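Page header: ASSEMBLY MODEL / two components / 226 residues total.
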Amino acid sequence: GEDVEQSLFLSVREGDSSVINCTYTDSSSTYLYWYKQEPGAGLQLLTYIFSNMDMKQDQRLTVLLNKKDKHLSLRIADTQTGDSAIYFCAEKLDTGTASKLTFGTGTRLQVTL
Amino acid sequence: DAGITQSPRHKVTETGTPVTLRCHQTENHRYMYWYRQDPGHGLRLIHYSYGVKDTDKGEVSDGYSVSRSKTEDFLLTLESATSSQTSVYFCAITGGSGADTQYFGPGTRLTVL
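Prediction written out in full:
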């Protein structure tokens, strides 16, 4: 099966930038996603990028995609305490009957004062 | 928020008992998914549905069955619960077009004693 890998933990100071990294294995992925999960809650879609793009910016969020290296990153500018959460990357695999997502194991972001 | 609810939100049951979790959507989306979330594994797909009465297995389907008799409801059944099925279960929906983003319900925390 396909594996999506993420580092487990990242700690940053409030106001700094956070960079969360992800590597994926399926070169035929069409879309890649970033989700945020706060304690006790479901997953909230943050942003996504189409595989023919290199970068996508959405307010404080910047997604970079290196398709050659199968590397995806999420940069959060001016990180705030409310950004503390678990962040999941996911790749979309088309199966013919339904699109399936393969998720990474998640990166826990801790924002310190 | 996408109109997805899950019930119950919390359940404690005993090994060997049957359990049914319900996912209800008000978006009229075609595709519905059941995932389980466990530490160190991210989210893993159990079963999914691509229409009424149309379902298929995901990567961790053993011990689970599903049914979809109406567009809005997708049921996940554990025929005989085991302790290894203690987990948080998430339902997701998607309309199946474009970026095909999946929107998640709030989750059900199931404990099997």
